[in-house]
């Protein structure tokens, strides 16, 4: 219980942390982070531009990839302001409401990304199970409805989080563990019971992210069963090859997510550097590497990128 002497004290801002224990090293991270964000925006922007320009890529798979790229851009833009504030301008203080706003967008885009990966698993299942009716099943209207449903689910799931945080008093430390605001990070600074916040966070992880992971796994069980029924070995390999990019994107998202969740729950004894590294990996790595994976593993996108560079080279 919170005592009465502290009940009237509340922080109006949070202090974000750059490199734990080494604030003097923060300026050294400015240019690497700037390069990372530039490459993330350039990579996802290239994917979006190629899909828009090349009519041969106007297929369900690439529409879902466009949604994934937009989500990655949104996730990167959600963390960028506080990262710039700390590492470029040495201004770690963030107003309470701004912190909650950033928290909402980070968690929302994380939920959207998980939902998009489920949609892409369904796309791969339909493409392999019923290739002749692939385009007629996943029409523009269906893809649009799936995208809207994913966004609505994310907003509804994350909507209570700002209110759950705002009801808590923060009368002790206001120093967060990361360079951006996360629900589980801000929650631990409260000087009142956070049981409701913890329970809601656990329910969200189990019934959205956990359920999504199960659906993706189940989809690939069905895909594998379908592929094994194909007589030709070459056709089996070709079918599985169309799933490699999506499998890599799933691993890039869920492996760091599981790591962050486990560390927050059971790794309180670990160094703060470990917590920071895992949290940064979870939020910064997928948006950076997803365009690389799809550019390398998807021949149509790879050819288009090579074609663009060859045209520029010829003009020079």
TrEMBL record:
InterPro entries with a match to the protein in the record: GPCR_Rhodpsn (IPR000276), GPCR_Rhodpsn_7TM (IPR017452), Olfact_rcpt (IPR000725), OR51/52/56-like (IPR050402)
Main location: membrane
Gene3D superfamilies (alphabetical): Rhodopsin 7-helix transmembrane proteins
One example of a Gene Ontology biological process annotation: cellular response to lipid
GO CC annotations, alphabetized: plasma membrane
Domain G-protein coupled receptors family 1 profile: 43-294
Subcellular location: Cell membrane; Membrane
Transmembrane segments: 28-51, 63-88, 100-122, 142-165, 199-223, 244-267, 273-294
SUPFAM superfamilies reported in the protein's UniProt record: Family A G protein-coupled receptor-like
Family membership: Belongs to the G-protein coupled receptor 1 family.
Function statement: Putative odorant or sperm cell receptor.
The protein, known as: Olfactory receptor
